[in-house]
C-alpha cells in the first residue's frame, strides 16, 4: 500500500536519528536544561533573525495549542478562530477543557479576515453588558491552514494590526510552517513572524522530526510565564534534550527548510498531475495538502489500486473531497505511481 | 420612565414577600434541609404529576446552567445548542469554563431541529478518529427560547427521541417556562416534561420570585450526584429555605401559573398593538418577549417619550430589532401607554 | 427546640425586609447597575474611609471565595491557607475545581503565621526546579477564623508585609467580619483592611442580611477584572439590587455593627456561662462561635433538653468539641435558658 | 562529571534505537492505530498474564497522572495520596488544574496505610454535610515510592481491599515499576497488579525507553473512556507507533526487566558501599534511589570530586539528604568510582 493520507507517516530525517544515537550515552540534565536545547534555541533565534524571542519545546500540536492558549488567555476570554481550524474541529475540546471558548468564525478558505476580528471586537466593546459576553483575547490562525491555503504577509500583518488595535494576541500555528514557507507564491518568511505574531509554533512532527513543536514567544508576559504552564499541563518532556537535539539538527545547515522544499516540490507536481487528470479541488493551491474532489467510483478504484488517502469531506453533490499529503519523506516514485494511477479512474 | 427591557425589573409577588417575612424568626437549618424546601419539592412533584424526579434549587440561571451541564457531561463531551442560545451568547463563557464546548448549530428561530442533532451524532459515530472530536453529550433548549419562540410538544418529543437514540441527555432551560405554558397555542405542559427531558428548570427569577431556579432532574445518575455539584460550584445557598419558601409559595394555589398568565395576556395584547401599529417582528409570536422592528427614528422617539426597552439586534437594512417584555409585575396601564405611544412614532 | 448550631438560622434584620418590600415595585435595572447598589458601594467606601476600593456583591461565601481566588491567581499558582480554613475543609473542592491548589499549612489556632508563609516562599524561590512546584500566589485568612479566633492588627500587618515581599496577594474572608470587629479585645477595624489586604469580604449572610457577601477589592488589576469573573462563575445576581439594598440598609446608621454587637455581647455572656459551669474550650475566646468541650453524656443530655448545637470535632480523649453560635438574631432569653441548662448536665 | 542525580540522564537501550531506525521508513498510521502498538499491548497483556486489561501509551509521567486522575474522578472527588507523592509535590499543580484536590496524608516512609484511607472514608461517610467535603474517589500510590521504598504485595492488597470497601479506585504509579520488581525483597510482581489495582502505569522514561508510560487499565468504565481523555489532554502522540515500538522492544525477550535488573544490582552495591562508608540513610532500602545523608562538608567535597547528585531534602540537624540513582544505563565503573570517592570525604 502507498499512503498519502497525512504528512506524519514516517519517522524522522536520518540526520535526526543519527544525532539522537550519537548522544545516547551523554548524561544530559532533564527538562530542557541541557546544551542541545540551548543550542537549538540559539539556532532558532538566528533563523528568526532576532534575539528578542523565547523558545520552548513541547512534544505535540494539540499540546502546544492548549498550553499556549491556556497560558495566554484570562478565564473570561476566548480565542477567535476559523470554523475549520484544528482547535475548533480536531482537538477533542482540548481548548474548552482549559476553560476557553473557541469563537469560531466562518471561513470558506480556512483563513480569517481582519474585518471578522474587528466586527467581533467592536460588538464586544460596544455592548454595555459585555461582562455577559466572552471577551475576545486572541486570534488563532494556521500557516498553512488546515485546508492547505496560505496567508500572505500582508494578510497576517493586517490581522496583527487589528489585534493590536483591540488588545488581542495573535497566535500562528506553524505545524506546517516549513511547507508553507517553501510553497510557490509564499511571501511570509520565518523571520517575519516575530514582528507579526505574539506567539507562533514551528512544527517538527510533520516536518522531519520524530516529534516536537517549537513554541516561539514574542509577548513579554507570556515569555516569563510559559515554562510554568508547560510543566503544569504535563507537557514538559523529562528528557527535554530529545527535543533540543532534534531542533538543533533541523536548524543546522538549513535542514528544516531543505526537508520542506522536498515536500513542496512534490506538492506542485501532484497538483499539476491532478489538474491534468481533470480533477477539481476544494481549494486550488499548491501546498503539501492537496484536496482533489473524487466521485465515489474514482475514490473506490484508487483504493483498490493500493493507494491510501484521506476522506476529507463530503460535497453536497455527492462527490468526496480527498486529501493527499506530501512530506519530507515522500518517495517521488510514489507520486509518479499515483499520478499514473489517477489517469484512468 | 416606563421600562419594558426585561422581565426581571421588579421584586417578587406579594405572597412571597409575606411568606419570607412570616418565617423570618423561624430557626431553619441551612442548605435546603428544611421543611419549606421539602414542601416545595413535594409541590413541584405534584405539579409535575410524578414522584420520580429530584428537585434542587439554585439562585440564578447561569448558575443553574453551568451546574447542570458541568454535572451531566463527561470531560470530553459538549452540549449541542442553538447559536442564539443563552449559554452560547450571554453567559460569559461559563459553560466553557466548566470545560465543555457549546456545539452551536444554526437556528433562524431560536429552536433546534432533531435533524440537526442526528446529523451531528451520525457524523461523530461514523468518524474513525472520533476521539479527536468533541462527543455530543447533551442537547440544550429553552422554552420559551431566547427569541420568544415556543417548542411544541411534538418537537420536544422528537428531540428527546433522537437524544435517546444517540445516548444524549436533553436539558430544557425553563427560565420562562411559566410564560411559555400560559402562551396561546402552547401544548407543552409542565407535567409533560419529566417524560420528555432528562433535566429541566422551572424559572423563578423572571416569574414572580425574588430569585431562584428549580432544577428538576429525571436522569437517575444526575439525581444522585447533583447535590455535590451544587455545593462545589458555590451554588448552595446557606439559607436554602429562602428558595424553598419561594417555590412553596409559587406552587401553592397555582400561583406560579396565575402570575404567568398575567404576563401572557399582556403579551398577546402588546403583540396585537404592535401589529396594528404596523410594526414587523423578528419572530411573529405572542409570548412575553416581543421583538418588533423599529427604524432608528422610531427607536429614538419612543425613548424620548420615556419608554425604556432593549436594543436586541441590528437588521441588515439598518432597522433595529427591539425587545419589549411583559412579566408577572407588568402594570396593564403601562402597556396601554406604550401602545398609545407607538401609534405616531 | 432552641438552635445554636450556626449563625445563619434566621432571615434578616427587619430593616432589610422592609427595604426590600418598599422597593418591590420599583423598576430596577439588572446585574447591579442600579441606584441601591451604587449607594451601597458608596456607603461601604465611607465605612472603609477610602475611595480607592471597588465593591462587588455576590450571594454566598463559597461563591465569593472561588470567584476571588479563581480571578486572582494564575493557573500555576496556589493559595496558602490554614489546614482548618473553610476553603480547605468545607467547600467541596470548589477552589480546586477552579484549578488551584490549597496549600494547607498547620495551624493549631486557625491562624497562619508570617513565618509559615515566608518559609514556603523562600523554599519556592530557592528551588532551581520551581516550575515543578505550585507557586504561592495568595494567602487566605478568615476573621474571625473558622474556630472563632481573632487576628490582631499587628498579625495581619505582618502577613501583609511578607505577602508584599514575595509578591503574594492577601485575601481576608470576612464572613464574620462584623462579629470580629465587635468582639472584646479586637483591634482590627474595617477601615484598616484596605491598607492591609488586597481583597476582603464583608459578610452579610451571617450578619443580618438574607444573603450576600461584599467583595472589597484593593488590588488594581483585580478591580478591573473582577466583574467579568463574577458573571462567568454564575455569581452575578439578575436582580442585583437585592444585594445593593441589603448592604445599603446594613451600612446606614451603622446597622451592620449594631447587629454584630448584639451577637458579640451574647457571646461574651455565653463564654462566661460555659466557663462558670466548668467547661473547657477548644479555644478560649469570646467571639460568636463558642467551642466548649462536652463529655458524651453532657452532649446527649443537652440535646434531650431541647437544645440543638454543632458537633464540631472529636477530642482524642473521647470528649466532643461542640459549637454554639450567637448571631444578630439570637434571643437573649435563649442564651439564659442554655446557661441554665448546662449547669447540671 | 559523573551524574547520579536521577534515572533519566541517558537516551534509550540500543535495541530501542535500532527498532526505531529500522522502522523509520515504514508508513505507520497515526495515533497508535498501528501494528507496533497493537503488538506492544499484546506483549504487555502477556506479561501481565491477563487479557482483561486495556493498555494505552502516553509520553510522560505527569501527563499520565493528570490524564488518569482527570479521567477517573468525578468533579467533586479528590485523590488520597501521601504528602510526599509526586502528584502532591512535583507536578506544579497539574492535578488541581484538572479540578481535583490531592488529599494528602502523612507518610514518614512515602507509603500510605489502609487505616489512613479508611479513617478518611469513614469520616466522609459519617458526615451529614458531606456534600460540603471533597469526596475521596481514588488512592494514589507509587512503586517504588518517591523516597525509594517498596510496598509489599500484602500492603497493596490491603489498600485495594479498603478501596473496594468504600468504592475508591486504586492507582499505582509505576514510573519505576521495573526497578521495584527487580529489587531484593520485592514480592509484588507485574502480574499481580491487574488483580490489585484499577489502573497502573509501567514506566518507560526511567527504564530504558526514550520516553513513554504505559497506562494499564483494569476498571471497565475507565477502559472505555480513556482514549477520549488522552486526546483531549494533548497526550495523544501523532506518531503513536514510536511508543508502540519502544514497548514492543521492552517486552520482547524480557528486556524491560533485564534492564531493570542492571539498575537494581548496582543499587544494592551502592547501598552497601554507602553503608560501609558509614553513611546514614533517610530510608534504609536497596532500590535504585539511594538517599544517604551527608554533612555539608561531605556534600561539597563530593561535588568537587566531579560527582553530580541530588540535594533531596534538609535534615533538622543541618545535614543534607542526597539522592543517588542507578538506572539501566549506569556504568558500573562509575559506581565503583563513587564508592571509592565517598571513602574519605
UniProtKB/TrEMBL annotation, chains A, B, C, D:
Cofactor(s) needed by this chain: pyridoxal 5'-phosphate
InterPro entries in alphabetical order: ArAA_b-elim_lyase/Thr_aldolase, PyrdxlP-dep_Trfase, PyrdxlP-dep_Trfase_major, PyrdxlP-dep_Trfase_small
Keywords recorded for this protein, A-Z: Lyase, Pyridoxal phosphate
Domain Aromatic amino acid beta-eliminating lyase/threonine aldolase intervals: 11-240
Domain of life: Bacteria
One example GO MF annotation: lyase activity
GO biological process: amino acid metabolic process
Lyase among keywords: yes
UniProt keyword annotation of Oxidoreductase present: no
Cited PANTHER family: L-THREONINE ALDOLASE-RELATED (PTHR48097), LOW SPECIFICITY L-THREONINE ALDOLASE (PTHR48097:SF5)
Family: Belongs to the threonine aldolase family.
Record protein name field: Beta-eliminating lyase
Species, as recorded: Anaeroglobus geminatus F0357
Amino acid at each position: 500500500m502507498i499512503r498519502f493520507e497525512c504528512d506524519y507517516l514516517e519517522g524522522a530525517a536520518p540526520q535526526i536519528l543519527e544525532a539522537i544515537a550519537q548522544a545516547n550515552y551523554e548524561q544530559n540534565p532533564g527538562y530542557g536544561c541541557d546544551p542541545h536545547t540551548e543550542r537549538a534555541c540559539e539556532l532558532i533565534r538566528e533563523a528568526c533573525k532576532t534575539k528578542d524571542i523565547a523558545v520552548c519545546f513541547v512534544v505535540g500540536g494539540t499540546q502546544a495549542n492548549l498550553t499556549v492558549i491556556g497560558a495566554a488567555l484570562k478565564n473570561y476570554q476566548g480565542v477567535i478562530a476559523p470554523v475549520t481550524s484544528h482547535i475548533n474541529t480536531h482537538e477533542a475540546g482540548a481548548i474548552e477543557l482549559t476553560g476557553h471558548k473557541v469563537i469560531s468564525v466562518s471561513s470558506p478558505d480556512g483563513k480569517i479576515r481582519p474585518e471578522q476580528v474587528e466586527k467581533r471586537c467592536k460588538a464586544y466593546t460596544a455592548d454595555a453588558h459585555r461582562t455577559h459576553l466572552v471577551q475576545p483575547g486572541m486570534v488563532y490562525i494556521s500557516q498553512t491552514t488546515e485546508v492547505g491555503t496560505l496567508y500572505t504577509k500582508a494578510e497576517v500583518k493586517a490581522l496583527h494590526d487589528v489585534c493590536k488595535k483591540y488588545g488581542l494576541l495573535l497566535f500562528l500555528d506553524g505545524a506546517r510552517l516549513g511547507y508553507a514557507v517553501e510553497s510557490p507564491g509564499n511571501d511570509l518568511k520565518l523571520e517575519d513572524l516575530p514582528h507579526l505574531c505574539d506567539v507562533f509554533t514551528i512544527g517538527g512532527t510533520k516536518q522531519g522530526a520524530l516529534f516536537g513543536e517549537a513554541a516561539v514567544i514574542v509577548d513579554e508576559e507570556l515569555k516569563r510565564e510559559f515554562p510554568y504552564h508547560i510543566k503544569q499541563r504535563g507537557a514538559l518532556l523529562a528528557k527535554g534534550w530529545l527535543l533540543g537535539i532534534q531542533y538543533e539538527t533541523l536548524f543546522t545547515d538549513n535542514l528544516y527548510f531543505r526537508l520542506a522544499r522536498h515536500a513542496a516540490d512534490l506538492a506542485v507536481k501532484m497538483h499539476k498531475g491532478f489538474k491534468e487528470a481533470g480533477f477539481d479541488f476544494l481549494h486550488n493551491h499548491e501546498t503539501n495538502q492537496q484536496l482533489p474532489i473524487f466521485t465515489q467510483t474514482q475514490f473506490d478504484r484508487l483504493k483498490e489500486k493500493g493507494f491510501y488517502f484521506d476522506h476529507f469531506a463530503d460535497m453536497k453533490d455527492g462527490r468526496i473531497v480527498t486529501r493527499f499529503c506530501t512530506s519530507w519523506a515522500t518517495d517521488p516514485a510514489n507520486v509518479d505511481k499515483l499520478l499514473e494511477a489517477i489517469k484512468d479512474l
